[in-house]
Amino acid sequence: MKDKDRITNIIQSLFEMAGMMDVHLFGFTSRISPVMYDETGFLSLSKMITGCSYGVIYNKNTWWNEEIRLKEDFWISCYIKYKERKILTDLRYNFEQKNTFVNAGGLASIRNQEEERRSILFIKKNFGDSILLKSATNNGKDKTKQLVQYNISCKFKF
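The structure assignment produced for this chain is given below.
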């Protein structure tokens, strides 16, 4: 979809819904294929968000740790999940994303395997056993053949 007004309305609607639900972090799915969509569950309060497609309604629990340079989307997801136990994710829509290490601008000048590793281990240090190192993505693609050595998932025990 390329209609800017429709896209703006979708984003604004999710923002308004988040406000009504007292949710301070909201966003859209990272699922890239329509076949992954479950029409019976188009909203979630437990999923993580990705860096290119989230919004924040600031409050006392909105805090980015300035020691982390990459994976800030994962950091804020973990922090808000820990503090508030909910993130609103609309599973119907996603933003087209490029793979890690191919974007120009933004964090591209500091993004490398060592900084990714440092950020991942920093998040694991702060959130402990809730952060799981994984060697494969959700679709089973082997991460060892990609530029990112490993990735993380999050499972809070509450």
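Interim note for the steering committee: The chain has a mean pLDDT of 80. Helices lie at 4-20, 72-84, 113-127.
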